[in-house]
Design brief:
Blueprint (H helix, E strand, L loop, with lengths): L6 H11 L7 E7 L5 H14 L3 E6 L10 H7 L11 H10 L10 H18 L2 E6 L6 H11 L7 E8 L12 E4 L5 H11 L5 H11 L3 H6 L14 H14 L5 H10 L5 H12 L9 H5 L3 E3 L4 E3 L2 H9 L3 H14 L4 H11 L5 H16 L3 H13 L4 H17 L3 H12 L5 H10 L12 H15 L3 H17 L4 H13 L7 H10 L5 H11 L7 H13 L3 H18 L2 H18 L2 H17 L3 H17 L3 H15 L5 H17 L3 H9 L18 H11 L2 H14 L6 H14 L3 H9 L6 H17 L3 H18 L2 H13 L17 H11 L4 H8 L3 H15 L7 H5 L8
Parallel strand pairs: 1-4, 1-5, 2-3, 3-4
Antiparallel strand pairs: 6-7
Pfam families: AAA_16, GerE
Organism: Amycolatopsis decaplanina DSM 44594
Protein name: LuxR family transcriptional regulator
Length: 903
């Protein structure tokens, strides 16, 4: 197609592919069908080839959407030899995903990392241009991998150009690619294009074509061959084009029509397969020459081994223009041709089915199992849903729909899962199936947006399922209900009902799931038994990362933030190795929240940043809100008040409409800390008091025990002592029922500050504070301030000095400055602290440099952080000058690494 009017777009793409050999990025070319996306990309490919880039291509095909990693297989086939050089976990995952080796079910993120590593290695020899066309028709697994790669090629000598139809969804929309929107041609350019392809048109026909094409380049080049002097019915442009292509198809001789119909239904585009299936239909051998008329009619491009349609509309127009029975016979002929390819055979058999068919349903179910084994949940969902449609028995139909819904939940397809559950519920379900249907959707946003009555309903359902002899499904339902008690507040009656069900389940008390349920549902009433179980289980961290994640969450609920940090840190490496980034996000968010409460900002900064990024990538908005709120708290503790406000506002926007209480609580905490460090103590008290008001959306039953010390500080400085006493008295009533460390540390601080004496301060300092350095520093600061006000300046200095040194080491700048001011008032000079090496780095850089300081290689760091090892090397090259070092051996010293304590 002539490229009239596309000079600006071509210039932009030319600069992209003809720039320096690193850090190129990519572009998403969008537009309606026929607007010229492929033509523009073809010109970019020509420029790239002349410029010395290697081009790798893949194209989404509508008929291949149900075949996991089909498009990725096409893309990587030319560089498949390099797979053998990948690290073993990546190599196994990629081979399994492409169906080229038997292995355990590959994780999508390991497949993505393998593809990134492979492409990065190939780009070393020659920069790469990756072209992905029609990504709206690409199988979801391949599209996810391309989006994964797109987010991580900012420092690689790789360019990605993808094409996407207007309005179509795709993971690549959120992959950080720049956008190029192709519009229809202006009137004068459209007229020039039409005159160049059809110079002999009469004036009326020319005017009508210009009006109907309305600037669409494909219409301008294809419609002239089908117009007559008589006016045609007014049709939508896409339908008009399809009719044009259909008419050309109908004019072909036999066997060209039959062979072309088979080619349109054959998802792979293989010429040999198409000829074999057409021969089956026609009862005679078919030669490639049978397709020559179709090529002459500009419907296809015929190559030595493949049949390529000139435009996707051509491919879709051909099956639509033949009777159903003719399509059915073509599908059956393809099914017979694919007798050694069971997945493709099953899909063509299903397309040919005229009613229910259990045999074909079983074949599709087997295809779903194979797709899942290759790490293709979306393809498995499609196969199971089609199998359900073909199922003659209602119970089998419901089972298949619910299995498909479960896979949709795992892959983040909320709308698909909801539709499948709704379809399953349209029929009669067994008790087991009803339980499955009820807990399935709780995986999305932990039920935050659901009505609170849903929690009590789940409790009753869990009890019913347990009574029917299904303890595991009952536990899953109960866990879904318990998680809602973290994000929302169902009230004491509902909590008691949940706890009663948990007590009656035939599950061992030490089962991590039951421990976590008790912690979420009864964080005070069961704190003693939960903490006992947690301390026993702490000796076995690292054995099962998912169990460690459960226990980290449980620890947070019962005020044991030190254990929460320990369990969640233990969970992260295993979840990374397994590529379970959704669960890793949750573990990192809990780890970051806990580390900040312990005052270990240096460790929390990169963890919180990674949690926020992964939450966006894995579609977990409230985990993103929680991680962002933690970043706001860190900024407030560092005295970065403008940044704290920006981050707090962002987190609040994510959580406010849905009432995600832990996020809102952390936002209020961050704002309270910032206000205190700026001397706005009334504002600080107002923000922090909301955390203790059950009517406020920031109230979170379990987390409020962590905030007693902050509230006390703000209240004393704001002169709100009586209001503070009321809240402290309420929290004192909880103390006898729970051994929660956070609560007792906070109360000892409040007692000492409200009724200051040497005895109360020293009692608080003698308590078990190992692993709680920020709380120890806070006590020393408050004690030193009180001693100075008592005119005991000499006694105060040791405490103030300890506080300053503690807060300097922890990076809590605002608190360190308070200690300095008090020291100067006590008669001791205290020079300002220079910026720590860590503070010169971005959170992403800090993640990399901390791992490098631990002795990990670039490749090992890349595997941990889901980056190519070359990207890691580029970052380290930039980091060294910031830290004033010239080798990896100097990193630990430059960072002044201190060993954090988890327990």
């Amino acid at each position: 197609m002539p490229l009239f009017g596309r000079e600006a777009e071509l210039k932009d793409l030319g600069e992209l592919v003809d720039g320096p050999a690193a850090g190129r990025g990519g572009v998403l070319v969008q537009g309606e069908p026929g607007v010229g996306k492929s033509a523009v990309v073809a010109e970019a490919v020509a420029v790239a080839t002349v410029g010395g880039l290697r081009v790798l291509r893949t194209t989404g095909v509508e008929a291949e959407r149900n075949f996991a990693y089909a498009a990725l297989h096409q893309l990587l086939h030319p560089v498949r030899a390099g797979v053998d050089t990948l690290p073993a976990p990546q190599r196994c995952a990629l081979w399994a995903a492409l169906g080229l080796a038997e292995a355990a079910e590959p994780n999508a993120y390991l497949v993505g990392l393998a593809a990134l590593t492979l492409l990065s290695e190939e780009a070393v020899a020659k920069p790469l241009l990756i072209v992905a066309e029609d990504v709206h028709w690409m199988d979801r697994e391949s599209a996810d991998v391309l989006a994964f790669v797109a987010r991580r090629i900012e420092t690689e000598p790789i360019v990605l150009i993808a094409t996407l139809r207007d309005g179509e969804p795709s993971p690549l929309r959120d992959a950080g690619l720049s956008s190029m929107d192709l519009e229809r041609l202006p009137e004068d350019v459209a007229a020039d294009l039409l005159d160049s392809v059809a110079p002999g048109l009469t004036s009326p026909v020319r005017s009508r074509l210009l009006a109907e094409a309305a600037g669409n380049p494909l219409a301008l080049t294809e419609l002239p061959s089908s117009v007559t002097e008589a006016p045609d019915p007014v049709l939508p442009l896409t339908e008009r084009l399809e009719r044009t292509f259909g008419a050309r198809f109908a004019a072909l001789p036999e066997p060209a029509r039959t062979t072309l119909l088979v080619a349109a239904l054959n998802e792979a585009g293989s010429l040999s397969e198409t000829l074999a299936a057409a021969g089956e239909l026609l009862g005679e051998d078919v030669e490639p020459s049978a397709l020559a008329p179709a090529a002459e009619a500009r419907l296809i491009d015929l190559e030595a081994r493949t049949v390529s349609f000139r435009h996707p509309l051509t491919r879709s127009a051909i099956p639509a223009s033949v009777p159903i029975e003719e399509r059915r016979r073509a599908h059956l002929s393809l099914a017979e041709t694919f007798h050694q390819q069971p997945d493709r055979r099953a899909w063509h058999q299903a397309a040919a089915a005229t009613g229910t068919d259990e045999n074909v349903a079983r074949e599709l179910e087997n295809a779903a199992d194979r797709a899942r084994h290759r790490g293709g949940p979306t393809a498995a969902v499609a196969a199971l849903e089609q199998a359900a449609r073909l199922s003659p028995e209602s119970e089998r139909r419901a089972d298949r729909l619910l299995r498909a819904a479960e896979l949709a939940v795992e892959s983040g397809g909320r709308e698909t899962a909801e539709r499948l559950v709704r379809d399953a519920r349209a029929g009669e379900l067994t008790p087991r199936q009803r339980a499955t249907a009820s807990w399935l959707l709780s995986g999305f946003e932990d039920g935050v947006r659901e009505d609170l009555s849903r929690i009590a309903e789940l409790a009753r359902l869990a009890e019913s399922v347990a009574e029917d002899g299904h303890p595991d499904p009952a536990m899953r339902v109960l866990w879904g209900a318990a998680m809602r008690c973290f994000w929302a507040e169902p009230g004491a009656d509902t909590r008691r009902a949940l706890l009663a069900v948990a007590d009656r389940l035939p599950v061992d008390d030490s089962d991590p799931r039951l421990v976590a349920v008790a912690a979420y549902v009864a964080p005070f009433d069961r704190a003693g038994s939960v903490l006992g179980e947690l301390r026993e289980l702490a000796a076995g961290t690292g054995a099962d990362p998912e169990v460690d994640r459960f226990l980290g969450s449980a620890s947070l609920q019962v005020g044991a933030v030190d254990l929460a940090a320990r369990f969640s840190a233990a969970a992260a490496p295993g979840l990374r190795a397994q590529g379970r980034l959704g669960l890793l996000t949750r573990a990192l968010a809990i780890q970051a929240w806990s580390r900040v409460r312990l005052g270990d900002l240096a460790a929390a900064v990169p963890v919180a940043a990674e949690a926020a990024e992964l939450a966006k990538e894995t579609g977990q908005p409230f985990m993103y809100g929680l991680a962002t709120a933690v970043q706001a708290e860190i900024a407030a503790l560092r005295g970065e008040h403008k940044q704290a406000k920006t981050l707090a506002d962002e987190a609040e926007r994510t959580a406010l409409a849905a009432g995600a209480r832990p996020v809102l609580a952390t936002v209020r905490l961050a704002r309270g800390i910032a206000a205190s460090s700026e001397g706005r103590f009334d504002d600080a008290f107002t923000d922090l008091r909301r955390l203790f008001d059950p009517a406020d959306p920031a109230f979170q039953l379990a987390l409020r025990v962590y905030f007693v010390a902050e509230l006390t500080e703000a209240a004393v400085r704001a002169g709100r002592i009586e209001a503070l006493r009321e809240i402290v008295a309420e929290m004192e009533q909880l103390a006898p029922t729970t051994p929660a460390p956070a609560l007792h540390i906070g109360l000892r601080y409040a007692r000492a500050v409200l009724e200051p004496s040497d005895e109360l301060f020293e009692t608080a300092l003698r308590a078990e504070l190992d692993g709680w350095p920020a709380e120890r520093g806070r006590l020393h600061l408050a004690y030193g301030e009180w001693l100075r006000r008592q005119r005991r300046a000499v006694d105060s200095r040791a405490h103030l000095r300890t506080a300053r040194e503690t807060f300097d080491a922890l990076g809590m700048t605002a608190w360190a400055e308070r200690a300095r001011r008090e020291l100067r008032s006590a008669g001791e000079s205290s020079p300002r602290r220079g910026p720590d090496a860590r503070e010169k780095l971005t959170p992403h850089e800090l993640s990399i440099v901390q791992l490098a300081a631990e002795g990990l290689t670039n490749r090992e760091i890349g595997q941990r952080l889901y980056l190519s090892h070359r990207t890691v090397g580029t970052h380290l090259h930039r980091i060294f000058p910031k830290l004033g070092v010239s080798s990896r051996a100097e990193l630990a010293g430059a960072l002044k690494l201190v060993s954090g304590k988890d327990g």
